[in-house]
């Protein structure tokens, strides 16, 4: 007998029947639907199904949180519904039909950076560890670092830069590859395009910023500066999309029997030329403006207000998918400033959401069914994965979500007010401290404490005072 027979039939009925499903796929914990008419889905009844831990709509997809059994549930669902399995890419493509221009742009950004996050996280942790052993004066009464007294740690410090450089200096290669993969074009051409942006024969972007004179390609009638775009995000994005779209257009007009020769040549060569003449300089200028505006806003006399607004609204941004834009801004800040003051606030927001769930565990400590959802959600949230906590608990009850937003804003003000900077994007939640620059770890720890305590206490207070209590439940505090 199938494990979820009854639940599958219930979901099929409550979602509007087979005829209301355009496509469906699943990820690690969620079913992802594109519905022909989202209004036909009875969300209240769907969330009442025993195995459902929450629902939300994002990027045109109606997503249902199932948990670790999602693949089993999915297989039984498509069998009972009599519909074909769809890939996540097919679902995303169908979902975009429900999005406006801005939402589509954000969706594209999310898909570009998602495959790069593991490498960026590793790179951030490595930079943090190098700073701990190389910059913090831990030994000889606070006068020397580990690398200064130990040849072993000096060697480790030197060796780890090999990986850090690969991740961040050569990030454009990953971006152009990711774009070619997403667009379904030739991935090796994307990789080659990225390499032409960071080739060793080009003058390093940081040297150019420091005033060094760049060599040139001399064509007689004109010259092109040989400038590299190491760690630059926007030039790589612009070049990657130009190459992908050019290749797609060429495929449409070039006969198949010569496409193997013509398409790569007339796709890659013009794009590389355009990247160094137009796209690179323009992208660099745009990126510099963005990073300057964000950094100036966070370090100005009104930086505390910017921090409070960002900390308060980041969790709602996650619901809409707009949070994907912060990846590009973080990476641009890193390339321009050697660190980011935006990422610490994101890690704090994750912690705040987990702390609100922790308070719900305390309030509902006698509810075994509730704990089956809330305990795993709190753990995953503290490790940087917020969806189970946000959609399974906090948004369900409303007041813990508000408490988490207030706690996040409080912690963000402390973080920005004390000048906390991260080396890079890193692991969210509590492990986020590993990405913080060593000189700021203590003050960030204080901000983390605020992100734990404030949402916890506010959630309990809101429950006791019945503030925004959406769902009545016995509180056994």
From TrEMBL:
Record domain PTS EIIC type-1: where: 107-477
Record SUPFAM superfamilies: Glucose permease domain IIB (SSF55604)
Limits of the PTS EIIB type-1 domain: 5-87
Transmembrane segments: 112-133, 159-179, 188-207, 227-246, 258-282, 302-322, 402-422, 442-463
Subcellular location as annotated: Cell membrane
CDD domains, sorted: PTS_IIB_glc
Membrane topology: Multi-pass membrane protein
GO cellular component terms given for this protein: plasma membrane
GO molecular function terms listed in the Swiss-Prot or TrEMBL record: kinase activity; protein-N(PI)-phosphohistidine-sugar phosphotransferase activity; protein-phosphocysteine-trehalose phosphotransferase system transporter activity; trehalose transmembrane transporter activity
Keyword set, alphabetical order: Cell membrane, Kinase, Membrane, Phosphotransferase system, Sugar transport, Transferase, Transmembrane, Transmembrane helix, Transport
Signal peptide: none
NCBIfam families per the UniProt record, alphabetical: EIIB_glc, PRK11007.1, PTS-IIBC-Tre
PANTHER family: PHOSPHOTRANSFERASE SYSTEM TRANSPORT PROTEIN, PTS SYSTEM TREHALOSE-SPECIFIC EIIBC COMPONENT
UniProt protein name: PTS system trehalose-specific IIC component
Organism phylogeny: Bacteria, Bacillati, Bacillota, Clostridia, Peptostreptococcales
């Amino acid at each position: 007998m199938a494990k979820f027979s009854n639940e599958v039939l219930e979901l099929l009925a409550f979602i509007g029947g087979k005829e209301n499903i355009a496509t469906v796929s699943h990820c690690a914990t969620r079913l992802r639907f594109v519905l022909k008419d989202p209004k036909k889905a009875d969300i209240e009844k769907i969330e009442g199904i025993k195995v459902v831990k929450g629902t939300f709509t994002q990027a045109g997809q109606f997503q249902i949180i199932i948990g670790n059994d999602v693949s089993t549930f999915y297989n039984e669902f498509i069998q009972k519904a009599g519909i074909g399995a769809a890939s996540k890419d097919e679902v995303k493509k169908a979902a975009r039909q429900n999005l406006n221009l801005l939402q589509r742009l954000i969706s594209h950004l999310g898909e570009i950076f998602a495959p790069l996050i593991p490498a960026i996280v590793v790179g951030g942790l490595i930079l943090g560890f190098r700073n701990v052993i190389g910059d913090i004066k831990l030994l000889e009464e606070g006068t020397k670092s580990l690398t200064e007294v130990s040849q072993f740690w000096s060697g480790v410090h030197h060796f780890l830069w090999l990986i850090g450089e690969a991740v961040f200096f050569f990030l454009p290669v990953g971006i152009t590859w990711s774009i070619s993969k997403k667009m379904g074009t030739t991935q090796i051409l994307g990789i080659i395009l990225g390499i032409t942006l960071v080739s060793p024969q080009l003058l390093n972007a940081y040297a150019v910023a420091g005033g060094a004179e760049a060599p040139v390609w001399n064509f007689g009638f004109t010259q092109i500066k040989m400038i590299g775009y190491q760690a630059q995000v926007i030039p790589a994005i612009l070049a990657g999309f130009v190459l992908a779209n050019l290749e797609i257009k060429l495929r449409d007009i070039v006969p198949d029997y010569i496409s193997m020769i013509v398409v790569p040549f007339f796709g890659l060569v013009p794009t590389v030329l355009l990247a160094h003449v137009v796209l690179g300089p323009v992208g660099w200028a745009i990126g510099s403006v963005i990073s300057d505006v964000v950094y100036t806003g966070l370090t100005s006399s009104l930086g505390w207000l910017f921090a409070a607004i960002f900390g308060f609204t980041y969790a709602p941004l996650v619901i809409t998918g707009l949070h994907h834009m912060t990846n590009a801004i973080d990476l641009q800040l890193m390339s321009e400033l050697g660190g980011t003051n935006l990422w610490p606030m994101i890690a704090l927001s994750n912690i705040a959401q987990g702390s609100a769930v922790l308070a719900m565990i305390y309030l509902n400590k006698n509810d075994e069914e509730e704990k089956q959802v809330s305990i795993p959600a709190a753990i995953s949230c503290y490790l940087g994965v917020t969806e189970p906590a946000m959609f399974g608990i906090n948004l369900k009850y409303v007041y813990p979500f508000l408490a988490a937003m207030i706690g996040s804003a409080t912690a963000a003000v402390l973080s920005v007010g004390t000048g906390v900077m991260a080396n890079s994007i890193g692991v969210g939640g509590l492990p986020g401290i590993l990405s913080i620059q060593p000189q700021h770890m203590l003050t960030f720890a204080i901000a983390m404490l605020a992100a734990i305590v404030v949402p916890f206490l506010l959630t309990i207070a809101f429950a006791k005072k019945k503030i925004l209590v959406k769902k009545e439940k016995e509180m056994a505090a």
